[in-house]
UniProtKB/TrEMBL annotation:
Gene3D superfamilies: Clc chloride channel (1.10.3080.10). It is found in: Membrane. InterPro entries: Cl-channel_core, ClC, ClC-type_chloride_channel. Its main location: membrane. The chain crosses the membrane at residues 16-34, 54-74, 101-125, 150-178, 190-208, 228-252, 264-282, 305-328, 349-367, 373-395. It is a multi-pass membrane protein. This is Chloride channel protein. Keywords: Chloride, Chloride channel, Ion channel, Ion transport, Membrane, Transmembrane, Transmembrane helix, Transport. GO terms for cellular component: chloride channel complex. GO terms for molecular function: chloride channel activity. CDD domains: EriC_like (cd01034). It holds the Pfam family Voltage_CLC.
Amino acid sequence: MRRYISHQFPNQLKTYTGLLLASIMVVITIDFFLMSSDYAQHSFKQLINKQPLLSFAITPITIVLIVYIAKYYCHYIQGSGIPQLIAANDSRNKSIRERLLSFRVALGKIGFIFMGMLGGAPIGIEGPSIHIGGSIFYGFNRFIKLKRKLLIHSLIAIGGSAGLIVAFNAPIAGFLFAYEEIGRNLKKQALILIALVSGLVYLLAIIYRGNNPYLTNMSQYSFDFGLAWQLLPLAILSGILGGLFSKTMLFLVQKFISHTKIKVIIIALILGLIIASFNYFSKGQIAGSGHNEVLLMLAGDQPGLGFVVMKYIATLSSLVSTIPGGLFMPSISIGAGIGSEAANYYTQINMQIVTIMAMIAYLSAVIRAPLTAVFVILEMTVSLHLIIPGLLVAFTANWISKQISAQPIYEALADNYLKITQRS
């Protein structure tokens, strides 16, 4: 048994040196990416808060430019980046993997996300962080030269896991996401290597920037497990909304695919104007990832149903446009908005607990990775003691979403990338 497991590990010292250097590079690169993205979205929000009408000029122009450049010059940088990792891991073709994952792709992702945030796009950073992490680790294969398919695919899954860990300071969620999504077809033995390197990345991240939670510490809020059944309506509602989001997005992405440049520009302009109108009415509140808005809601703020509707439609419009940008944090902010509104009807459960449960339920319904959804949010809020009700709402919402949209959103988009790369 020991010999069989050891066969799944690299046997050269330079491979482990490469993994260490890749881990260090991912931590430094993604930390820079997070800071630059945060600066960009704050700059836009400050400007639009003072002069809301500028959103009608800045946002549509930014969306059109990004869509045009990405579609015709940097196609594999589009979207969140997670479908690219899944497609690369599902493919046995080296040329396809190199188109989807490279140092060049990582640099392009950072630049486009900065541009999108500066233009008011409602996009997140976790999917791009996962794409950047996967691209860096796979890029290091030029030096460590892994040959075996299992190790190459493990390297991609490690990179994706590392990206999520550094972005959200969530080591368990990072590993589980590699298991649920990126490396779902890998042999179980490969998970040992993924877990070990993921742990190394987490340790390096703590040394480099500390161990603060990505959101806030909610460990002081207790929950009576006997009330868990009361959360089922919230999970069902979140499951319906998340399933509809995924189904609508996949339908519109297929509908709006066009190879005519003028149509591409017109569609991007229309979607940009939709996003701009919500930026105007919310004074920039729906722009960016939604990180600050979630912090306010966890502190007891209630932005209202209007925020949920605007963020929902704006996020959908942004993703349909195919501009680079993540889905996790915008979905979490929508879930938080649902929870803050639903909390008015829960007299026996603390508002913060309801908000956290809604975040878990809605994210699980959208990405269809319930274990990841539970742990990423509980780790971001330092509330792992809520794991039982979290699992209940996550799997309930996931099941409801599955009845509406059969194929998970990332898998469906990954299939599109495989088709595109095989044609080109």
